Amino acid sequence: MNFISNLATRKQAWGLLAGSALGLELAALYFQYVMDLAPCIMCIYQRAAIWAIFFAGLVGYFAPNQLIARLAGYGLWGTGAIWGLIIALEHVEMQSASLSLFFTCDITPNFPSWAPLHEWLPALFEATGDCGEISWQFLGYSMPQWMVVVYSVYTAMLAAVLAARIAIAKNL
């Protein structure tokens, strides 16, 4: 329990969090620009969630011993992991529903007016694909199904770290 709790105060752990998210983003860009798989709106939202996890790792990396920085990191991590999981589950539902012809997804992302990411960075956040299309699979699972696994792992890791931190704090 101490080991898991102490991870939150170690630069390496936060760096690993940021590095894993960056790796996933680079993989997404590889799929988009090398394999020519067009990202749909749900993919773009999941991409934004990965960026939240990346920034959580950066915040924690640069100030792992500062409570405020760790709280900000936990907040970004939780927001990215849980929001990404919800979006990925919805995306899987869109692709697997027997009436998937009735599902539609927007072409333009619904980002806040104060942060139109699709206008600022269209190479990263412009949606050009169809949500219902399954154009890639690995071991029989589609991209959104793999993202459910990824976001579930991120969520479980956050829950384990927070539970350990709370358990240790209560024992003090």
UniProtKB/TrEMBL annotation:
Chief location category: membrane
Family indicated by similarity: Belongs to the DsbB family.
Compartments in which it is found: Cell inner membrane; Cell membrane
PANTHER family: DISULFIDE BOND FORMATION PROTEIN B (PTHR36570)
Main function: Required for disulfide bond formation in some periplasmic proteins. Acts by oxidizing the DsbA protein.
Cystines in this chain: C40-C43, C105-C131
Molecular function per GO: electron transfer activity; protein-disulfide reductase activity
One cellular component (GO) term of this entry: plasma membrane
Cytoplasmic-facing ranges: 1-13, 165-172
Biological process terms in GO annotation: protein folding
Pfam family name, one: DsbB
Name used for this protein in its record: Disulfide bond formation protein B
Periplasmic side: 31-48
Topology with respect to the bilayer: Multi-pass membrane protein
NCBIfam families, sorted: PRK01749.1 (NF002485)
Entry's transmembrane regions: 12-32, 44-64, 71-89, 146-168
Gene giving rise to this polypeptide: dsbB
Protein keywords: Cell inner membrane, Cell membrane, Chaperone, Disulfide bond, Electron transport, Membrane, Oxidoreductase, Redox-active center, Transmembrane, Transmembrane helix, Transport
Protein's UniProt keywords contain Disulfide bond: yes
